[in-house]
Inverse folding.
């Protein structure tokens, strides 16, 4: 789960998109793991409505209707994490956005733009309306920027131009100051930038 301004955003990817070797070790193929994740997201969204009718899927089964309370006050966005084309296509088909991860040295505006293009193409094939395609959240986690925030700051406009809507960086601080913290920038498409939240 990823912290959001009104609660927690499910981020499917790190645990959902396992490496091929790990999936084989569990006796499941990557395609099956992807199908399991797709169905799990569908079930979760049903639960967020507050009332879930009996459900019989390929991997999950609800034998009788259940009530889930409290219901979210707003739409709960699901971000699909992963750097593969499969993850980007899944984000375009069923997600509300894409969670990408780069090191500062490997940070690529063209990679972000290409990923967004894959999302939109997959979303179009899935029949999603234009408003949803234009509203994708593209969250980019950047590692190795804790001592180079000034360098990252010089690229905020180009990252926004590539389609990034938010950047998340981490810094470690000192042992006396507690655990690692996160700094999130909101990158506006107008190329204005602001520090959105620090925690």
């Amino acid at each position: 789960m990823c912290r959001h301004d009104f609660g927690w955003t499910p981020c499917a990817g790190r645990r959902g998109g396992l490496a091929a070797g790990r999936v084989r070790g569990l006796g499941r193929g990557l395609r099956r793991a992807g199908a399991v994740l797709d169905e799990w997201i569908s079930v979760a969204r049903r639960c967020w409505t507050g009332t879930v009718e009996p459900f019989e899927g390929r991997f999950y089964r609800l034998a009788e209707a259940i009530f889930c309370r409290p219901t979210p006050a707003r739409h709960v966005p699901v971000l699909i994490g992963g750097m593969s084309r499969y993850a980007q296509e899944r984000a375009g088909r069923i997600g509300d956005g894409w969670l990408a991860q780069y090191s500062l040295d490997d940070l690529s505006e063209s990679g972000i733009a290409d990923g967004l293009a894959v999302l939109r193409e997959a979303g179009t094939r899935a029949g999603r309306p234009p408003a949803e395609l234009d509203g994708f959240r593209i969250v980019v986690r950047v590692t190795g920027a804790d001592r180079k925030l000034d360098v990252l700051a010089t690229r905020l406009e180009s990252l926004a131009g590539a389609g990034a809507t938010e950047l998340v960086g981490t810094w470690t601080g000192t042992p006396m100051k507690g655990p690692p913290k996160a700094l999130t920038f909101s990158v506006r498409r107008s190329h204005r930038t602001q520090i959105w939240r620090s925690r």
